[in-house]
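anyone seen this seq b4? input:
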Amino acid sequence: MKIIGHRGARGLSPENTIASIEKAIEHGVDEVEVDVRMTKDHVAVLHHDSTLIDPSGTEVTIKHTTYAELLRHKPDLAALDHAIRVIGHRCPLIIEIKPKVNPEEIINIIRFYLAKGWRIEEFRVASFDYKILQQVRQALPDISIIVNEAWSSIRARIRCRKLGTRRISISQLALWRGFLKAMHKSGYKVSPFSINSVRRARKWRPYLYGAITDYPDRFEKK
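predicted toks r here
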């Protein structure tokens, strides 16, 4: 079972930051996942929500604000380009593209690093937005695609078949042992989010590809 750091290691350090990514790698994750949005000036940044709230309570919308302006509100707001360079070749990166984000610039960033010597196996692209995954599959036919799903295993499997992938990330709240066993038997690679209970992970382990967790230290190999 792979251990996948959720938004870096959001239970140990501020999520989607360079510090959080470093913390995940420190605890030996097999893959690290981050959320990506686009700024007004087309910089791919690591952030989960569409808006950013600074310490003073000021709320700004990421897609309507430049990266330089956003840094004044959140100095540790990381660009995807920076995150890739920091990770280097230490573990694969899952880039979750948030719904309705134009993936073109993110695709270009991946292509840039492939030209620099990174391997396609060092990147995965995930999304809840099927159209985004279609665009990525067309532009990067060999990249690993992950179908994100909140609750519907039927929808997830249909999308997997259309996209030519077997990887699904699905909310743990939608899972039970019988379903996982059937999915495993059918060749699907299921990773629940966010699974922070070691006990639950052990119970499901025979049928999981990975566990997406906020606390990779709990699963660290001793």
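The chain is about 35% helix and 25% strand. The mean pLDDT is 97. kinda curious what u guys think
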